[in-house]
Amino acid sequence: MSETMQSMALTVPQSGSIEAYVQSAYGIPMLTAEREHELATRLHDDNDLQAAQELIMSHLRFVIHVAKGYAGYGLAQADLIQEGNVGLMKAVKRFNPEMGVRLVSFAVHWIKAEIHEFVLRNWRIVKVATTKAQRKLFFNLRKNKKRLGWFSNAEVSHVAESLGVSEKDVMEMESRMTSQDQTFEMSNDDDDNAAGSNFAPAQYLEDADSDIAVQVEENNWEQHANKRLANALVALDDRSQDIIKTRWLDEDKATLQELADKYQISAERVRQLEKNALNKLKNGMAA
């Protein structure tokens, strides 16, 4: 149901044609209360997707209006509108016409919720707000911050009092909001020029699957296995050694026919020699 409804919404352009999208959305007529109730009933009772489409399209202008209120976050208007459209579709899906309210009143929560999540995901690589209280402070602090630069002590006190939080919470959130993102991994140029003197955050992460003891054990086993393989190969005749190396160990592996042409024998004979040599290697490494 949700995927079908999502495909019904107008695709918000990511280029300069956003104006044309807005103009088209405002050209769609608004619904009367009676028509809205009829469409919502058809969707709620009969899963009428045509009714869902009309409900969504007629409310696109409201999503645009809400999205404009988030223009100060430095994010593309098209992205904000698209996220708001997702919230609108979720609201239409859950709307019950028997609740006695208009769809626009019910949908505003869902539209803002999707836009809020998008803003928080994109404001910083590391989220500035992880709890409900922090998110509320984040959006209210943005509204109260009238100028660039740090708050003065008086401004911190005023914001804390008006929002009903501690001054410490205000200062901590402001610090998060004004901090600069750091590249998680060094670029190729940084990697070439660093000469071991600079490190990106990614290089400080602990590998949860790393176990030094296991690594040492595996390295020792690999060295031991390679030594046994080398000893077992020496025990083979020159032709068998060449067949094993060219068929199994070289990067560009030879075919049975290529080795047959080389030794003037049949490909089947090469296969037999290869099988016998592998059995000898297996026995020699197990000894």
Class per helix and strand makeup: mainly alpha
Strand % is under 5%
Number of domains: 3
Could you name the CATH topology of the largest domain?
Four Helix Bundle (Hemerythrin (Met), subunit A)
Please outline the major beta sheet. Answer: none
- Helix fraction bin: 55-70%
Number of helices: 15
How do the helices and strands follow one another from N- to C-terminus? HHHHHHHHHHHHHHH
CATH architecture of the largest domain: Up-down Bundle
The chain-level mean pLDDT equals 76
CATH class type of the largest domain: Mainly Alpha
**Rounded radius of gyration (Å):** 34 Å
User: What is the number of beta strands?
Assistant: 0
**How would the global form be characterised?**
elongated
What does this structure look like?
The chain is mainly alpha-helical and 287 residues long. It folds into three domains: 2-123, Four Helix Bundle (Hemerythrin (Met), subunit A); 126-180; 213-286, Arc Repressor Mutant, subunit A (Orthogonal Bundle). 67% of the residues lie in helices and 0% in strands. The chain is built from 15 helices and no strands. It has helices at residues 2-8, 18-26, 33-46, 49-58, 60-68, 77-94, 103-123, 132-144, 153-163, 167-178, 188-193, 212-234, 238-249, 256-263, 267-286. Helix 5 (60-68) packs across helix 6 (77-94), helix 8 packs across helix 10 and helix 12 crosses helix 15. The longest helix is centred in the last third of the chain and has 23 residues, at 212-234. It is elongated, with a radius of gyration of 34 Å. Mean pLDDT is 76; it is low at 1-8 and 190-197. Residues 79-92, 255-281 form the RNA polymerase sigma-70 domain. One of its GO terms (biological process) is response to heat.
